[in-house]
Amino acid sequence: MGQRGMSQQSSNQAGQRQVRARLVVGFNYPRLNVPVRSQQASSRVRTMLKRALPKRAVGVEVTLVGSTAVLRGTVPNRHDRRVIELLVKMEPGVDAVRNELRAESTASPPSSG
To answer: Where are the domains of the chain?
Structure first.
């Protein structure tokens, strides 16, 4: 396609209307209200932290405000603080994390290897 073909294509796009498609799920599912979803997400996050970091996340309190997870408490170091934040960000139902965790030490954990 030469330059002429490109100008025709761009002029056609400029004249087109944008159409929004509406998607409908083809099966029935239970709708949960926001407080129930928040409780379930908060419970999932606490369970995940207990499994992933059983000793280091002991002092972590997780509450959900809408879809924002609020982390409070004390962790051993800054690395654990960051790891916990990243793990919580990956949980379904969590769109943002407000990390209010305090690190006992500013040192990084010893490398294992």
So the answer is: 34-113
99 neighbors 71 (Cβ within 8 angstroms): yes
Residue 45, exposed/middle/buried by CB under 10 A (0-12, 13-18, 19+)?
buried
Amino acid (1-letter code) at residue 72: R
Task: Please give the single-letter amino acid code of residue 105.
Answer: S
Determine the average pLDDT of the residues in 51-59: 86
SS3 annotation, the chain:
CCHHHHHHHHHHHHHCCCCCCCCCCCCCCCCCCHHHHHHHHHHHHHHHHHHHCCCCCCCEEEEEECCEEEEEEEEEEHHHHHHHHHHHHCCCCCCEEEEEEEEEECCCCCCCC
Question: Which numeric CATH code is attached to 34-113?
Answer: 3.30.1340.30
* Model pLDDT for residues 22-48, shown as the tens digit of each residue: 878 788 766 655 555 667 777 888 888
